[in-house]
Design goal:
Layout lengths: L1 H7 L11 E3 L5 H8 L4 E3 L7 H14 L5 E3 L8 H6 L4 E5 L11 H8 L3 E8 L9 E8 L6 H25 L2 E4 L2 E4 L4
Parallel strand pairs: 1-2, 3-4
Antiparallel strand pairs: 4-5, 5-6, 7-8
Amino acid sequence: MAIAEAIREGRLPGAEIAVVLSNLPGAPGLQAARELGLPVIAIPSAGRKRAEHDAEVVAALRQHRVDLVCLAGYMRILSPEFVRAFPNRILNVHPALLPAFPGLDAQAQALEFGAKVAGCTVHFVDEAVDHGAIIMQRVVPVLDQDTAESLSARILEQEHIAYTEAIAHVLSGEYHLVGRRYVGRNQK
């Protein structure tokens, strides 16, 4: 929804949402996308082999002429074939300052570890979990009274900002990768 709002407000010039896709037919994001008049597809993954499911998803994305895949709440590990179908064209947002606290429950991990700051990371997706080149990060202080829920809420606010900014940077094409390092315009 934050991406759709950014497009509507002109913060992602030239961008459009080609399709909203989920592996869960009842995903709230699909209904929200329908209400915005966006094309939606559900490709159930339950009981299917990852490679088979991902091949169907890749075919659907290609059918809709998708140039950039933006994962948002998609809680599945992508197959190597999926990642290779969109090299450096799949983005993910993770609720931690990677490489710290990859995987699930990153906010709870940060609290349990005693981190003084947390945040979010937008990164390219590669074949490892929460591992691709980092495009952008935003920091959130961890407060003494924080719970996983309160910290998650503050991080989510920053995720919406960071994801939109990262998409704009990637769509501009004004960057290059040096090994795993993302180097945007105005950086050396």
